Amino acid sequence: MHTSRLSTLALAIGTLCLVSGAFAQTKYGLGRKATDQEIAGWNIDVDRDGKSLPAGQGSVKQGAELFANQCAACHGDKGEGGIGDRLVGGQGTLATPKPIKTVGSFWPYAPTLFDYIRRAMPLNAPESLTNDEVYALSGYILNMNGIVPADATMDAKSLSAVKMPNRDGFVEDPRPDVP
Q: Can you count the helices (H) and strands (E) in the chain?
């Protein structure tokens, strides 16, 4: 009797899988293999070394104007925070009882700042900024933290060359199963 119920259950699950797969491929267009162009569109990761940064460039000055128009409402006029995270300051506070984690105090690699801005900002329209705009905003935020000069222009090469103040502030993960 027990074996009969298991067989019936297995048959029902198998039938459900076959029906749902066929139904998904025909009626809703689900289950199609993604094209190389679609995968390329989704694969916008920028690693910490900046090897996959896109072409483009933006100046700190351009970034200041963009920041005022696109970011200040949430992050404050000078990146001091508001309804959005604080982006500026906090250097030297990480080892204190009240650490202030900002781009300038906590962020270890500048290319990942580009990745975050491009992927997630502005909050109401993520991925809407051009690469030039993201380079400009990255430069402006780095400038507000005293990391690049006011006349800097950021591109893949210059952003990858930025050494963030907290780059060496992290420790390796000691777990053997984590690469």
A: 7, 2
Closest among 144, 141, 75 to 110, alpha carbons compared: 141
Cβ(46)–Cβ(126) under 8 Å?
Answer: no
Q: Within its chain, how far is the Cα of 58 from the centroid? A: 18
CA-based nearest residue to 34, from 42, 26, 23: 42
- Residue 109, classed as helix, strand or coil, is strand
Of 143, 169, 138, the closest CA to residue 155 belongs to: 138
DSSP 58: E
Taking alpha carbons only, the member of 107, 120, 119 closest to residue 159 is: 107
pLDDT in tens, 6-51: 677 676 766 665 555 555 555 777 788 889 988 888 888 899 999 9
pTM surpassing 0.70? yes
Q: What is the pLDDT of residues 120-129, one digit of tens each?
A: 999 999 999 9
